[in-house]
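Example record

Each entry pairs one chain with its bound ligand, S-adenosyl-L-homocysteine.
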Amino acid sequence: MLKDHQVENPRLNAELLFAHSLNLSREELYVRLHRDVKEEEKKALERLIQRRVSGEPLQYILGHQEFWSINFKVDPRVLIPRPETELLVEQSLSILSEKTFEQNPSVLEIGTGSGAIAIALAKEAGHIFLVATDVSRDALILAKENAQTAGVRYQIGFVNGDLFGPLRPSRETGPFDLILSNPPYIVRHKICTLAKEVRDYEPTIALNGGKDGLAFYRRIIPEAPGYLRAGGWLLLEVALGQGSDVSDLIEEEGSFFKPECIPDLSGIGRVVKAQRK
Ligand code: SAH
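C-alpha cells for the complex follow.
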C-alpha cells in the first residue's frame, strides 16, 4: 500500500510503523515476533498505514525524530528537525571550542521549534548558557519538554516572542557570544509546491519566509549586532541558493567582517557565518 502510494522508502516506513503499533523496536520485529499478529493489532497497523498514505509525516505518527543522535519528541506544533541542520550545530561547536571566552559563552537561538539545535549545543558544550526563543508558545512547550528529557533544561532559558522582541525590555541576559537561527526561509508562493508531508502538516509559521524567502534574514541581520559582543558570531542556516543573498545582506549591514558561506556534504552553501567587528 505504501509503495502504491509512492511513499518514499516504503519498506522502512512499513517496518517502523509495524514496530510502533506493536510497541517494539525495529530490531525486535525480527528477533521477537514469532507469533501471529492479532486482528486488533492488524487493525491498528492499518490505521497507521492509512495516516502515512494520506501524507502525514512518519515522524509525527511515530512522535519522534533523531537529531545529533538525540531523540526529540515531535508533533505538528513543531518543524521536524532536518539532518542538514546539524551543520549549524557543528559550526557553532567549532566556534565555541576555538575561542577562549572570558566567561562561559552565552548563545541565543532564534526560532527554536522542537529545541533541537539549542539542546544539541547544550549537551555538547556543558559550559554554555543558552536563550532560545520562538514566536509559537506551543512549540516552546514541546521544546522545554525535550530539554527536560535530554537533561539540559537548566542550561536553556526559553522565551516567547517575535525575534529579539522578548529580550528588549530586560536586557538582563546581556550581549551574546553567538547568535544562531534556522529561520523560516521558503518563498511564500512556493509553499504550495512542497511535498504534502511538509505543506499540509508542518507549521506554516515555521516555513514562510515571505515574498522572496529572505524576510527573516532582513530582520535578524540588522538587529543582531545590538545583541552580540564585539568578536561574537552570527550563524544562519539558508536554503539552497540563498547563501550569496544572505552574505550580501550581512556585508551591507556593515557591522560584520566578511561573511563565509559553509557548504554541506553535497557542496551546497548551507550556513552563513559572520563575525561582528
Ligand atoms: N530551530 C528549529 C526550528 C526551525 S523552524 C529547527 O532547526 O529544526 C523556524 C522556527 O521559527 C519555528 O519554530 C517558528 O515558530 C519560529 N518563528 C517563526 N516566526 C518567528 C518570529 N517572528 N520570531 C521567533 N520565532 C519565529
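The longest helix spans residues 39-53.
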